[in-house]
Amino acid sequence: MMRWPGAAAAIAGFALGCLEAPPDQGSGNPTPDATVAGATDAGDSSDAAPVCPETPVPPGGTCGAPCDDCAGSVCAVACPAPPGCGGTITCPEGFACQVDCSDADSCIGLTVNCPADYGCQLTCSGDDACMNLVLNCSNGPCVITCNGDPQSCRDATVHCGDGACLGYCPNTGAETPTILCGSSCECTRC
């Protein structure tokens, strides 16, 4: 199974409200002002108040479909191509959720429904991996990472919920997803 390195730890941290954006591809350092659902605002001042409520720790439970693995109360779904993942993935309640679309065409037209109260992370890195994908966020923090191929998130759409919502797209000139902030308590577009 192909996995984003450290993804289980990252999404577990994300679910606790302390995930930073993945390291900048060139320097290995986190990008500035990328804390999601942490205790600082976009200005990153030390006296800033929280902008989003704390995210509860997911309790976990019995690991079943659509999860390939449930380490650390994170439902990890890998979508290797062929055939990739199609249709709809509804993340189970009681878990944070991580969906990995790392291969070319692996998640074309996929809809991902995030859990109601826990973190949700989608990684798109292959050519057209997340083309026409829809990510439906909820009350928990939500991140879409578009790295690798510059067209990995072509025509993807993120519907933010009430929680923090972050698009992370480090590739200069890449096609970025449409991020609809709605009622998000903190929203960062690519």
How would you characterize the overall build of this protein?
- The chain is mainly beta and 190 residues long.
- It has one helix spanning 7-15, and strands at 74-78, 88-90, 96-101, 111-113, 120-124, 134-136, 142-146, 157-159, 165-168, 178-180, 187-188.
- It has a six-stranded parallel sheet with strand order 1-3-5-7-9-11. Strands 2-4-6-8-10 form a five-stranded parallel sheet, with no helix packed on it.
- The chain starts with 6 loop residues before the first helix and ends with a strand.
- The model is unreliable at 1-50 (pLDDT under 50).
- Biggest β-sheet strands, sense, barrel: 6 strands, parallel
From the helix content, strand content and strand pairing, which structural class follows? mainly beta
Number of strands: 11
Supply the number of structural domains: 1
> Approximately how much beta-strand content do the residues carry?
15-25%
Helical coverage, percent range = under 10%
- N/C terminus separation: 28 Å
Report the C-alpha radius of gyration, rounded: 15 Å
String of helices and strands:
HEEEEEEEEEEE
Number of helices: 1
Strand order of the largest sheet: 1-3-5-7-9-11
Please, what is the average pLDDT? 80
Low-pLDDT residue intervals, each spanning 5 or more residues? 1-50
